[in-house]
Amino acid sequence: MSSSAFPQALTAFGWDESLEKDFSPYRAAGLVPARIAAVDRGRCDAITEHGPVRADTTPVASPGDPVQGPCTGDWAALRTGEHPAVTALLPRRTAIVRSSASQHSHGQVLAANVDTIAIAVSLAARLALGRVERLLALAWESGARPVIVLTKADRSDDPAAAEAEVAAAAPGVDIVTVSATTGDGVDIAAAVLTGTVVLIGPSGAGKSTLGNALLGAELLATGAVRDQDGKGRHTTVRRELLPLPHGGVLIDTPGLRGVGLFDAGEGLQHTFAEIEELAAECRFADCAHEREPGCAVRAAIEDGTLPRRRLDSYRKLLRENAWAASRNDARLRAERENNRKAITKWQRQHYKANGRDR
């Protein structure tokens, strides 16, 4: 590959030799590489080596399975010209997928090809450890590296105590405490959050304010937070991708009112790793950690090394994940049955048209 063919301008957005290799068949077909910055109703903003382009995503839209459709962070093969269009997506390295907020059993991709997931937790509100664990399961399942960022430290009476409490719910996860108002900890966060970074968390967690501190400019809209419950308005209304001044890119996401798990079995194992390790020491392989003799999990709860809350949260998320999986299995069975019926109908029409009975 000649050095002139490599899109140097895209390296700031994460382009590398591996992506260039994957893209070679598309380049031979006259297409150009682009990274999708935002998607909106069949159109997208895409970053190319020659600048931003507004393109059609219809050719690769996937109404049957939205998870396969284009989203922020995807690398794409773009047809240029009078009517630019995304014609294909490169294989994703990582993908943050949650259960769809609709009544359907499909997943929803929040962002793709993410290296680091910054889970924003506000210290100006009551800590919701169950939500932290839920977001961690989502993050671990994606394949990216989670980092918990405790925001608004200047509004906490005891940030160190809050950090210790969160650390107990997030074993093995880096935790950074920051105040975007005073600037404390922002330099540490900038050093820890590397590659393609996505900010996730509820409204009012300070994601956009943190993002502006990392970007070094007021590029993301911010809003006030209600004092009575710490909740904020959705100032970020869509996902967008912006280059960071010291390398890497930032994806800001709208505040998540609810995060349903979607096929997050491995993510739960990572999030509750200490329970998984204890369970392996139980006398019975199918131990339910209730009244069975020789239960290592219950013994850890009794001696205080494992909070009961952790086991309750683990069970709750396991049940939710199993329910989501059953919905997905039911949808797949229904789709297969509909396909079978369609084929049978076509065959009957074909036989009838040819004067034959089946």
TrEMBL record:
HAMAP family attached to this UniProt entry: GTPase_RsgA (MF_01820)
Residues binding Zn(2+), per UniProt: 282, 287, 289, 295
Record-annotated EngC GTPase domain positions: 112-257
Domain CP-type G per the UniProt entry, residue ranges: 104-259
PANTHER family on file: SMALL RIBOSOMAL SUBUNIT BIOGENESIS GTPASE RSGA
Record EC number: 3.6.1.-
Subcellular location, record wording: Cytoplasm
UniProt keywords, alphabetically: Cytoplasm, GTP-binding, Hydrolase, Metal-binding, Nucleotide-binding, Ribosome biogenesis, RNA-binding, rRNA-binding, Zinc
InterPro entries: G_CP_dom, P-loop_NTPase, Ribosome_biogen_GTPase_RsgA, RsgA_GTPase_dom
Known role: One of several proteins that assist in the late maturation steps of the functional core of the 30S ribosomal subunit. Helps release RbfA from mature subunits. May play a role in the assembly of ribosomal proteins into the subunit. Circularly permuted GTPase that catalyzes slow GTP hydrolysis, GTPase activity is stimulated by the 30S ribosomal subunit.
Protein name per UniProt: Small ribosomal subunit biogenesis GTPase RsgA
Residues the record lists as binding GTP: 151-154, 201-209
A family per Pfam: RsgA_GTPase
Needed cofactors: Zn(2+)
Subunit structure: Monomer. Associates with 30S ribosomal subunit, binds 16S rRNA.
Homology family: Belongs to the TRAFAC class YlqF/YawG GTPase family. RsgA subfamily.
SUPFAM superfamilies: P-loop containing nucleoside triphosphate hydrolases
Cofactor note: Binds 1 zinc ion per subunit.
Keyword Cytoplasm applies: yes
Main localization, broad class: cytoplasm
Organism: Actinomadura fulvescens
